[in-house]
Structure formats: structure tokens, C-alpha cells
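Entry 14. Structure prediction run on the chain below.
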Amino acid sequence: MAGLVTGKVALVTGSSSGIGRASALAFAREGAQVVVSDVSVAGGEETVRLIQQAAGEAVFVKADVSQPAEVEALIAKTVETYGRLDCAHNNAGIAGRTARVADDTEENWDQILAINLKGVWLCMKYEIPAMLQHGGGAIVNTASDAGLIGLRRAGAYVASKHGVVGLTKTAALEYAKAGIRVNAVCPGPIDTPMLQQASGRVIEQMAAAQPNGRLGKPEEIAEAAMWLCSGAASFVTGHPMPVDGGYMAQ
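Output returned:
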């Protein structure tokens, strides 16, 4: 039986671990040829190995999404390798340091915004023209519940993720008639290497705050992203989808 994205070419950024790795594996499982991209070469190559081990097809391309030339080269390499680009999960992001708004540093602010927000814009800047060449495509950006609400001591992160949500809606409106759908996933706390950088007490508090009483799994976000890129979601665009165990319903 054909998978949800059989015959498609999918790009996943930030796919050396966590949500990105799970997403790349999901796209490959559902029949896509996958371009794995990250700044971490070892992690990205391991993701490719896992895909190939499961009889999928993938290549790794190193890229820093905050660098325009590297993003342009990433999309060019994708098209050079597989001939087209149909699906993109713009997932690369960082948490940065926590601080109250008046105590944050310019360095922290600039780094978070450069990767989390400018990086998403740069990816779409080069993905969209590639998709237009073949009649359309589907893009999913990783935002966050923090793109829908405020969080104390996370001003730069919250600003970046609110920006992703707004950028997603704008791109969806601009390219709807051209056959490109643009959506966002808004994860709650997910059990990833990035989250594990927090203290045990903070992680326990996050899990306790969830209506279902647990952290999410990377695979649960990956399934949502892959579905949004598939034909099953053909009438869905401009949607920031919470995947958060019900947290935003409170």
C-alpha cells in the first residue's frame, strides 16, 4: 500500500536528533525521498543511516539555517539530487538562555531570532521558488505553544515562535492559489535532547502541567508534520496546530 507521501521529495532541517530526526524517519517510512539537514554532521549522518536501515532513501546536507548562502545551497542541492522539492519541515531551532526581558542579552536575542525566525524565513525564501517550478508543495514550520502564549523568562524564544506563526499565516495566504500550503506545528513540552538540558525539577513541572500528565514524544510531532504535508491535509493551510496533550485547551 502506498504511503502518505510516496514519490515526494521531503526536506527536514534540524534533523540530527529529536523532532527533526523523527520527522525525517516518518517521511521516509511514508515513501518520500528525504534530505536530512543540520549543523551536526554526525547526528545528521546517523539519521540517514537509520532511514537506510529501514529501507528508505535519504541524503545528508550540512547547513546552518541562519546563513543565507548555506540555505540557498541546501535547496539547490536538494533539487540537484532528487529533481524537485515537494515537502519541507522547517524544524531547526534552539531554546537559547532563559532570562527576564530586561535581563536578556543582545547576543542571546540575536542568536535565537537568527535561527528560529530568520532561519524559517530563509528556508521558505528558497523552498517556495523550487516548489513553484513543479506546481506547488507543502511546508510545515515548527513553532511552539510558546508561539501562541507568553512564557516567563523566555522572551526571545516566545518572540521567535510568535514570529513563526505569523510568518506561516502570511506565506499561506500569499501562495494558496499557487498550490503551496504552509502550516505550523506548535509542540508542547517534548522529550527531546533540547528539553533534557533543563533541570529535572523543571521537566517534572512541565509534565505535571500537561492535561494528560506526560511529556510528548518526538514521533508524535513528526506524525502531525508529515500528515500536514500529505494530500490528506489538502484543505489545511495557514494553521498553527497545537500538538501538546491538550495544554492549550486549558
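The two ends are 39 Å apart (CA to CA).
Filed with the rest of this week's runs.
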